[in-house]
Amino acid sequence: GGSSRVMPAAPRLVIVSNRVPAPKERQQLAGGLAVGLAEAIAGRETLWFGWSGDASDNVAAPQITTIENLTFARVDLTRSQVKGFYEGYSNGLLWPLMHYRVGLMEYRRADRESYEEANERFADALLPLLRPDDLIWVHDYHLIPLGAALRARGVRARIGFFLHIPFPPLALFEALPDCDSLLHDFAAYDLVGVQTRQDADHLDAAGRARGARLRVQAFPIGIDPDGFAAQARRAEAGRDVRRMVDSLGDRALILGIDRLDYSKGIPERLRGYERLLQRFEQHRNKVMMLQVAPVSRGEVAQYKALRRQLDELAGHINGSYAEFDWSPLRTITRSVPRGTLAGFCRLARVALVTPLRDGMNLVAKEYVAAQNGEDPGVLVLSRFAGAADELAEGALMVNPHDPDAIAEALDQALRMPRGERRRRWQAMDAAIHTATAAQWGTSFLADLERLDPQENAEADH
Ligand code: ADP
Ligand code: G6P
After folding, report:
1. Active site (annotated) includes residue 164
2. Which Gene3D superfamilies does the UniProt record give (predicted)?
């Protein structure tokens, strides 16, 4: 339709993600999906639909809030869906599998049923809110079956999907008992986006091997680098950063920021830091490491175990190396305001980003954005982060399984002359300005809109 319009308005965008920020909660978000999306949709008429984060056992209509041209519609899950769909299948099974950690998977058929049921429930609640010419964009591993569920309810609009986390090689993916049905769910989308070329190759190969026709392409997610830089400059004069400066004296700050997640390589990073203190004595009492790691998915067994491990390692390192007026390590397992984090990034001489596997890792990009370009800090980055594709030229690259490699990179970073720091930072700053969050959203949606809907892979069944 639309032939009578002189200037066809851009279609409304419908974003569906399991985690939807509470309206105005943007400041406190921890997680690349919500942060990246919030940047990407700026200015467009948008409906953002998903889970409220709450459990309730009386099935109610979505809670709807509109702020300018952005409408939030959030539904509760039942207590049993939180357990089966969110904690069980999504985070106790798919999350470890997609991060190549087959040994951490916990498979239960009841969780699988809950996963299907929650997706059906989302589809039922979303259906009455949809308009025929909406552009629908579904996000992340919680909602892989949603596209097929909407198609089964007669939705003919274009539906795209973006996977924010990695996709493993076929030999690992096949460990999933439901791998075929999940691949066919992917095939219901008009376009599937992933973070890197490697993820695209893996998903493509899995689809081919198991007979599902997918249209997959890499769209690396980014940040709003200038916005984050401005936040970091403002925070520099703020109270939190001043307190931090006072407590550091002339010691160099080494910074880690992550959700408390086993994919982030936090214990590996601490072992690398411990090795620095052990092997490079000259840095003792000259550095302080801050690890901010807010508890995430704290009801899931593998995450509880990680928290205990972090507490134990941190106690061990402080016990072994602290002096009566210096502790080498501080850990915070709460969320910290984004502005304060930005200020800490600007202050830090080194950022340690050492995931064992990560879809992208926005913290790495935020650290780069926050630097003072005249006297920037150094990024130590795992080769297993999606961000390595873009930042390898400027970062000190490490394999996080090797504590000596982390210790050596830290030593090199702490000694690095300003000229080299500036050259490396400039390369990374150019990269984060090339692939921004806004550019990510625009290019995915442009590709989705450009598709001929007749070509829908296995859409209309
Ligand atoms: P993931 O999506 O796996 O959490 P990313 O690094 O891609 O990892 O994204 C994390 C996002 O959450 C970043 O924008 C980061 O600044 C934010 N974040 C991480 N830790 C905290 C924290 N402690 N407090 C507030 N925000 C955080
Ligand atoms: C990652 C995932 C997101 C998720 C976020 C926070 O960024 O890709 O889908 O929302 O972590 O995790 P949570 O379980 O709190 O939603």
Report:
1. yes
2. Glycogen Phosphorylase B
For residue 274, pLDDT over 80 is answered with yes
Q: Is 31 in the pocket of ligand 1 (CB under 6 A)?
A: yes
Q: Quick one: tokens of 145?
A: 């079956």
Find out whether 225 and 455 touch, Cβ atoms under 8 Å: no
Distance 19 CA to ligand 2 centre (A): 7
212-222 burial, b for 16+ CB within 10 Å, e for fewer?
A: bebbbbbbbbb
User: Residue 55 in 3-state DSSP?
Assistant: strand
Whether the per-residue pLDDT at 39 is higher than 90: the answer is: no
Q: What's residue 455's pLDDT? A: 52
The pLDDT of residue 8 is 58
CB of 223 closer than 6 angstroms to any ligand 1 atom: no
What is the pLDDT at residue 25? 55
Torsion, CA 387, CA 388, CA 392, CA 394, rounded to 10: 30
* Lowest-confidence pick of 67-71, 102-106, 149-153, 284-288: 67-71
The mean predicted confidence, pLDDT, of the chain is 93
Q: In what order do the strands lie in the sheet with 135-139?
A: 63-67, 70-77, 46-55, 13-19, 135-139, 158-162, 191-194, 216-218
**Is residue 325 predicted with pLDDT exceeding 70?**
yes
Report the 10 Å Cβ neighbour count for 434.
12
What pLDDT band is residue 10 in, cutting at 50, 70 and 90?
confident
Contact status, residue 304 vs residue 267, Cβ threshold 8 Å:
no
What are the residues whose beta carbons fall under 8 Å from the beta carbon of 273, sequence distance 6 or more?
254, 289, 317, 328, 329, 352, 406, 407, 410
Instruction: Tell me how crowded residue 269 is: count the other CB atoms within 10 A of its CB.
Output: 27
What pLDDT, on the 0 to 100 scale, is given for residue 222?
95
Backbone dihedral angles phi then psi of residue 138, each to the nearest 5 degrees:
-95, 140
Q: Are 219 and 444 in contact (CB under 8 A)?
A: yes
Q: Which of 352, 363, 366, 368 to mutate to test the pocket of ligand 1 (most atoms within 8 A of CB)?
A: 363
- What single-letter DSSP state applies at residue 3? T
List the one residue out of 364, 439, 310 whose CA is nearest residue 32: 364
pTM over 0.90, yes/no: yes
Nearest to 137 by CA among 448, 457, 459: 448
